[in-house]
Amino acid sequence: MCRCIRTAWWLSLALIAIGCGSAQPTADEKLNNRLTRNEKIMYIYNRAVANFERGKQTLNPKLLESAKYELMFLAGEFKHDSSIAKLKEIDAFYAETITNYKELIESTKPKQDTLLLASYYKRALTLAPDFSEAKEFLKANESIIKRLLQENLEKASAALKAKNYARAQRYYTRVLAYDYDNMEAQNGLAEATRLRRQLNLQQSEVPKTGEQQKTKTLSDAEKEQLYQAAKAAFEAKEYLKARELWLAIGDRRYKDVSDYLQRTVEKIEALRLED
Question: pTM of the prediction?
Fold first, then answer.
């Protein structure tokens, strides 16, 4: 009896994302009242699968963990076959991805590229928090990594001022591969990409008026068009093109642009596309 009550309570809680204490029922609360028990299970399952698919593409650990948590609940409480099967798929994905990072780490060691190596270790830790080798490397090289980040930022800034936009992109990308939240690198990369694109247009087209050259705010439809083009470029492994398109959206909070851009930056570094 207690388990049934607990399960019913969890199903209700899982569907109520916001609105606690609100006088008016939220959309999720209305949905919760309308769905049957099996429909609630499928609602949670479909949400978990969607999070897994997005997390798999972008390597967003929060999405992956959220998916795993909900599927584990459905598998444990309801012996839900689809959830059990999907959990095996998630475990296989984790194992394969961590193995890939370990292979990248081993292949990078002889190159003595400390910052790139640190990027792989840091990324691997988001998927395998108990990866002791990664923890030890990052701790032992903390001061070196900090110095390298600053040096790359300085080189990028100097290149930007010298109007060497490709070089600026290269160094900003190296910083972001390790520290994606670095605002100086994020803004610098966006600016270098914008100016490089503008320069290319000036060289290939009739010069536009000052009014035409102004950066305009994109509509949602225009953002979506760029998003789909960027995603297609990413899936086609055209990572330099994808990076330009993600940045052209001009809104890292649009959908999962931030996660995709982080993965794109990582791919550019891993494949040394700007060497």
Answer: 0.81
